[in-house]
Amino acid sequence: MSDPATLLIADDDPGLRQSLERTLTREGYRVILASDGNAALERLQAGGVDLVLTDLKMPGLSGIELLRAVKAIASEVDVILLTAFGTVEEAVKAMKEGAYDFLTKPFQRAQLLRLIRQALERRDLIQQNRALQQRLDDLLQQGAVIGSSPAFRRMMTLLEQVAGSSATVLVQGESGTGKELVARTIHARSARSRGPFVAVNCAALPETLLESELFGYEKGAFTGAAGRKEGRFELADGGTLFLDEVSDLSAVTQPKILRVLQEGEFERLGGTKTLRVDVRIVAATNQGLAQMVREKRFREDLYYRLNVITMTVPPLRERSEDIRVLAQHFLRVYAAKNNRRLEGFTDDAIRRLEAYAWPGNVRELENVIERGVVLTPGALMDMTDLPPEIAGATPLPEGVLSIRIGTPLAEVEARLLEETLRATKGNKTLTAKLLGIDPTTVLRKLKRQDEQGEGDAAS
Ligand SMILES: Nc1ncnc2c1ncn2[C@@H]1O[C@H](COP(=O)(O)OP(=O)(O)OP(=O)(O)O)[C@@H](O)[C@H]1O
Ligand SMILES: [Mg+2]
Q1: CA of 179 to the centre of ligand 1 (A)
Q2: What is the CATH number that goes with domain 409-458?
Q3: pTM, 2 dp
Q4: Residue 313 half-sphere exposure, CB side, CA atoms within 13 Å?
């Protein structure tokens, strides 16, 4: 058997405490006694408690209040209530607030032991489940940023450099390109990774609600503000606050955000005390913010504060090499999640995936693969398992590059060089020969592209 479980018992009746301690210690449990709710709470905060048994009526903190506190600070710890005859109504109320069960005094020893065993078993199962989920996520690299194209690698180089600083980052890119994933990865690779990552979608809430979410409020700040609430800025203290769809911030909210960025301080709604927080901001937008500034729809000063470093996540159609690796990644993830044995794709399917323009970017690809995993009858996902708009995409013959009319020449040159290098498996001499240029020119161009990738960091 593993370590004995630790039970915390709160009851103001010394006789009952002692008899419970005797019974439960004999059963092999570690027992901690508390004579009232406050003492129990203090002990709980120290950690290591597996289960709480508490009296309902105690001086100081009542059983229900203790239950609420347990659920707030250690939600995985179950609470069993010991209630006196005649307090069943309160016990029922406690059940609604998340108590595991209740026992009416006087109770039978066997009854008590059974309940404790069940509660602990349930807790074990939940913990095992969590650990398995975590392992699955690790195995599948859920949350990993996948890609192999030069454009992707340049972005990741910049990301590593940026993550190390505390600078504000503005992540730009079309919908579904992976802006939120980039923001999470910046946090995960920063010195703040142990701190919280808090996300707020600025487009999802009306102005007043958004402000109370961001800054919190004091009791009575507005009708319905029954208690004090901490805002997301406070919750993100020591970590990263992700302001998603920042272009949707209203003209009223923009200066308030600016103030936090400039001074690091703010007040809760209806509050007078100035609060200071240490928060790194990462903002995202799929709108051209610079354009919005020119049209006076977004404050210029806020734009410059947010835009200390810009990261642009390229659309998927501009990095078609990533399609294959991403598709394989999502296939593994969703096959495991759906308990399906799928090995990969037919060549036809891959060609169609690579030929499609992906207006919804990586999110669209992820959805298509998730759907395909469910529909594919065999071990390989085929063209026919893809939605018609993709199955019908005209595949490019092997060795052909498609370039949109109006693409800047420098970009055309860079892509042609990249694709030729890929086709020659990185052979620079052969690449130079095919392109009719000198090998040193190939090296020079590659070096310049790398530098340009890094140069974005300073802009
Ligand atoms: N490079 C990548 N590797 C692995 N998964 C990715 C990658 N890029 C995006 N994804 C996945 O694609 C989905 C969409 O990404 P995300 O939510 O970050 O996009 P977004 O740019 O924030 O989109 P929107 O503008 O619609 O909010 C997510 O499930 C994300 O995990
Ligand atoms: Mg997003």
Answers
A1: 6
A2: 1.10.10
A3: 0.64
A4: 27
